[in-house]
Amino acid sequence: AAADKGGWSSFMAKEVAEQPDAVANTLRGRIVGDAVVVPELTAFGDEVLAGIRRIVIIACGTAAYAGMTAQYAIEKWARVPVTIELSHEFRYREPVITDDTLVISISQSGETMDTLMAVKYAREAGARVISICNTQGATIPRESDAVVYTHAGPEVAVASTKAFVAQITALYLFGLHLARVRGTLSAAEQAVQVGELTAVPAKIATVLESSASIAQLAHWMADTRSVLFLGRNVGFPIAMEGALKLKELAYIHAEGFAAGELKHGPIALIEPGQPVFVVVPSPRGSASLHPKVVSNIQEIRARGARVIAIAEQGDAAVLPFADEVVHIPLAAPLFEPLLAVIPLQIFAMELSIAKGLDVDQPRNLAKSVTVE
Ligand code: G6P
């Protein structure tokens, strides 16, 4: 019903707009002073968390890209090896699980059968399981040792948006909680990350102000048949998520690549007019990444690609080589995914609208896949 959409043209438009609240609500009650304390994790006891030797994240679809993003942050902050696996691949390859393995499942619905079966498998093998879930009382949380709920509110559109940013937020809270317990971040470093986290909602609101220009770009590109996405480091999962959104919503061929992999194959795909979104890392981040991605942009531009750069405000280096630039506010590198994904969601939604498709209920997809 139109009323449920709160005046928005679609649930997805509403849910995209709700992302500042999705992040703010997920943070609420989990920051104490300048440190992260997630009450749901205290059930484990600090000795248990301190004794973890390995983390395996399991999820499907968009939730898996949230996991891939968080891998960078959790390893950096808590110094524990993290791997991320698709739930349906994990269970069938006899993974090595020991009792010092922590498994984190991520599921918006909490009902995805592939992830549920992987959770059961992991627990039977002796792992502890924490679930990140957006649906109170769902099946996966009931099968887990602990649950950290995302508080994005009900997500109705099939393609996930606000749940994704809430999942990354919850995983970052987990990473900072773990780092505090393990003593791998100083109080001052922890405070800096907390400051970054609490600044995210307002920054997402700023990115949402670019909606009209991204919509215009999508409408210009309505007959595009293929779009590529490049990203590096935490921008890599965002490139994959941008491609997934476009497949789901606009039914066009889209692929995300790690920018460093370009020269190992994907550059052969570049021909004149090929649209390529590039998630550009901050020039203030790791010294070597920004110039490398700028040179990737030059390489594809020289072969005729049409480059749409998602770049930090004030990043002048990309301007000469990009056909379009969408600016995002300044944030520490690990927090850029929460901003850079927004224009990609809007682009996919608007391309779907431009093609006259059903943005809330794309063909062949279900919001929650309850069969294996
Ligand atoms: C389905 C949906 C995707 C979603 C995936 C995982 O395939 O169409 O949008 O990302 O399931 O869903 P979950 O509820 O486990 O996060």
Provide structural commentary.
This protein is of the alpha/beta class and 372 residues long. The protein has helices at residues 11-17, 19-27, 46-50, 62-78, 87-90, 113-124, 139-142, 162-182, 187-208, 211-220, 235-250, 289-302, 337-354; strands spanning 31-32, 35-36, 54-59, 82-86, 101-107, 128-133, 146-149, 226-231, 253-258, 275-279, 306-312, 324-328. It has 13 helices and twelve strands. The radius of gyration is 20 Å and the shape is globular. It starts with 10 loop residues before the first helix and ends in an 18-residue tail after the last helix. 53% of the residues are buried. Bound molecules: 6-O-phosphono-alpha-D-glucopyranose (G6P). Residues 60-63, 107-109, 112, 115, 158-160, 365, 367-369 line the site of 6-O-phosphono-alpha-D-glucopyranose.
- Give the termini distance in whole angstroms: 31 Å
Number of DSSP helical runs: 13
Ligands and ions found? 6-O-phosphono-alpha-D-glucopyranose
* Helix/strand structural class: alpha/beta
Percent of residues in beta strands?
15-25%
**What is the overall shape?**
globular
Main pleated-sheet profile: 5 strands, parallel
Q: What is the H-and-E element order?
A: HHEEHEHEHEHEHEHHHEHEEHEEH
* Mean pLDDT reading: 96
Beta-strand segment tally: 12
Task: Return Rg in Å.
Answer: 20 Å
Low-confidence stretches are none
Tell me the strand order in the biggest sheet: 4-3-5-6-7
Helix content: 40-55%
